[in-house]
Amino acid sequence: MTDRVYPKSTAHPPQPLNVSAGANSFPATKAQLYGATRPAYRPQPERRRRSRCCSCCLWFTFLILCLLVLAALAGAVFYVLYRPHRPSFAVNSLRISQFNVTSTKLTSKLDLSITARNPNKKLVFVYDPTAVSAATSSSDVSIGTGTIPAFVHGTKNTTTFKVAISSTSETLDSSAITALKSDLKKKSLPLKFQLDTKVKVKVGGLKTNKVAIRVSCDGIKATVPAGKTPGKASTENVKCEVDVRVKVWKWTF
Known about the structure:
Number of strands: 14
Shape: elongated
């Protein structure tokens, strides 16, 4: 018998995997996923600046709040110790000796008696010269001006002033003359007075800064002179209000 010859197999034998340092591996590493050459994260300096600005704002706000609390406490202590009250004013009498109205001008002369009272036991008011003005209540037409000299108002003190208010041939526009003549036709002439001044408050040896105040007195019913008989006024229902005037830049409140 002869030997049977078989053909050689043409199948290729398995080749070994060539794993090198530069080839991709499976599964992928973190360096391969995110990139081994990606630069490291570095915080930006702008955020540090923002955090510093926020810290400064917080400290500044805290400081302002502390100052406000201290000011409130100081005000409360001052009120408890001294019990401050505003001064009060009252109109005692009014006498009109002259009141002439022409087609363009006004001439008037009034004698006003007014009382100022300081109700405080420990506070002294130091007044600058006070400007006094008179006007009609309904039409707000000015009929004269006067002045109260500067004075010191002691504790628990009541002082009476006599003020000469006048207007010498003051020129008025046609609308003011018409409104004034319309008021004169009534039985009584409604008038109001306004006092503007600045005052300091003295406590012992300490003095505050000057504060502007305005005293407004309304409700006066006056009669004009008839011949040589002067006109008089009713002051029973007169109310005087004292307001503190605060100036902020160009505005006064």
